[in-house]
Design brief:
Layout (H helix, E strand, L loop, with lengths): L1 H7 L4 H41 L6 H5 L20 H7 L15 E16 L2 E8 L9 E4 L3 E8 L8 E2 L6 H4 L8 E7 L4 E6 L5 H6 L3 E7 L9 E10 L14 H5 L5 E4 L5 H4 L2 E3 L3 E11 L4 E5 L4 E5 L9 E4 L1 E4 L3 E9 L3 E7 L2 H5 L3 E6 L9
Parallel strand pairs: 1-4, 3-8, 9-12, 11-19
Antiparallel strand pairs: 1-2, 4-6, 5-7, 7-8, 9-10, 12-17, 13-16, 13-18, 14-15, 14-17, 18-19
Bound molecules: copper (II) ion.
Length: 380
């Protein structure tokens, strides 16, 4: 009876916990094995995606984007220009900032050809861009009216895959914004259903490199019912440049490490440092000037401000379905965003327009609105 009793007695506590310990050890072993395997998979995946961010071919410019050198300090070429930079600035033909005219009809055909080209981004400073044939960086301003259909044809005349992403489009990006191989073209249509000013850019990975190399521009969509009539309309695309050399003796290319570190060498309106200081935009006293501003980045915002004036009407974020703000000093245009500003100036003078993040002014993101013919103003 006693043995029976013993037999039927539940195992002693010690035995139970020993079994539990064995099971736990076994489970732990399995867990470690599974985690180890997962870690291996993640490592392989990371390796693969890192390789995938590298462009397919190996042009020198493309190689720069795979440079994983993160040694500090990074070399800055901010403000480095040749001795004759003042003459070069005067000789440089400023990008025409005037808003191009609208075209009639329901369909607006736009054809852009991408091209690897060397451009000047500051006086005597050359840079190897991936940009737009006939324009450099930024690309051409597209100007349409709300409701018009845009038929976009993109031809890739560059050496690696590129694409075009329109922020003004409601469209499946995997179809319309897909990569276009060198020598090939893509065509797609979208209806400009939202008024404002929008960025377009290459969306091929790594996007940071493609935008930093000059693949961006602006599309203006006029609201159907129109905006108040103004006297002058200018388009300003803000962007910054990250250089692997000073670009003077030989053209600079992208320094991807500096782009990641947000360490710009030059910051510009319409692709060239200080160009509208040397060649000011113009208005007459009493006129209203409209600025269509896009911050292309790749990373920097534009904190738009006109010194000595007010933003009389500010369509913040390019929102035209609501009334504009009135009499404001500075408005943030976020990277990848746009905004529209009407500025009425009565008094003759030189009025700087800036990004009020002054590190960017220091690197070239400043221009002048010359109102009337103020004394001491440059004649050109
Ligand atoms: Cu691209």
């Amino acid at each position: 009876m006693a043995s029976n009793h013993t037999h039927h007695r539940p195992p002693p506590v010690e035995t139970q916990s020993a079994v539990f310990a064995k099971v736990a050890a076994l489970l732990l072993g399995v867990l470690v094995a599974v985690l180890g395997f997962l870690a291996l998979l993640m490592w392989a995946d990371a390796r693969e995606s890192r390789d995938a961010t590298a462009p397919a071919n190996s042009t020198p410019a493309a190689n720069d984007t795979t440079d994983h050198n993160v040694a500090l300090p990074l070399n800055s070429f901010a403000g480095v220009v040749p001795e004759n930079s003042a003459e070069l600035a005067v000789a440089h033909k400023a990008t025409d900032a005037r808003l191009p005219a609208l075209t009639g009809g329901d369909l607006v055909k736009v054809h852009m050809t991408l091209k690897d080209m060397t451009v000047e981004i500051a006086p005597g400073v050359k840079y190897n861009t991936w940009a737009f044939d006939g324009h450099g960086a930024p690309g051409p301003v597209v100007h349409v009216r709300e409701g018009q259909t845009v038929e976009m044809t993109l031809t890739n005349g560059g050496a690696i895959p590129h694409s075009i992403d329109y922020h003004a489009a409601r469209i499946a990006p995997n179809v319309a914004f897909k990569d276009v191989m060198p020598g090939e073209s893509i065509k797609f249509r979208f209806t400009a259903s939202d008024p404002g000013v929008f960025m377009y850019h290459c969306g091929t990975k790594p996007v940071l490199a493609h935008i930093a190399n000059g693949m961006y521009g602006a599309i203006v969509v006029q609201p159907k019912e129109g905006l108040p009539t103004v006297d002058n309309e200018y388009v300003l695309v803000g962007s910054e440049w990250y250089l692997n050399g000073d670009g003077i003796a030989k053209p600079a290319s992208l320094d991807m490490t500096k782009a990641r570190a947000r360490m710009a060498d030059w910051v510009t309106f319409n692709g060239y440092a200080n160009q509208y200081v040397t060649h000011p935009l113009t208005a007459k006293p009493g006129e209203t000037t409209r600025f269509w501003v896009v911050a292309a980045g790749p990373t920097n915002n534009v904190n738009f401000h006109v010194v000595g004036a007010m933003l009389d009407r500010a369509w913040v974020n390019g929102d035209m379905k609501n009334p504009p703000q009135n009499g404001v000093q500075t408005v943030l245009v976020p990277a990848g965003g746009g905004a529209v500003f009407d500025v009425k100036i009565d008094e003759e003078g030189l009025y700087p327009f800036v990004s009020h993040a002054f590190a960017d002014v220091d690197l070239g993101q400043v221009g002048l609105l010359k109102v009337g013919n103020p004394k001491g103003a440059m004649s050109h």
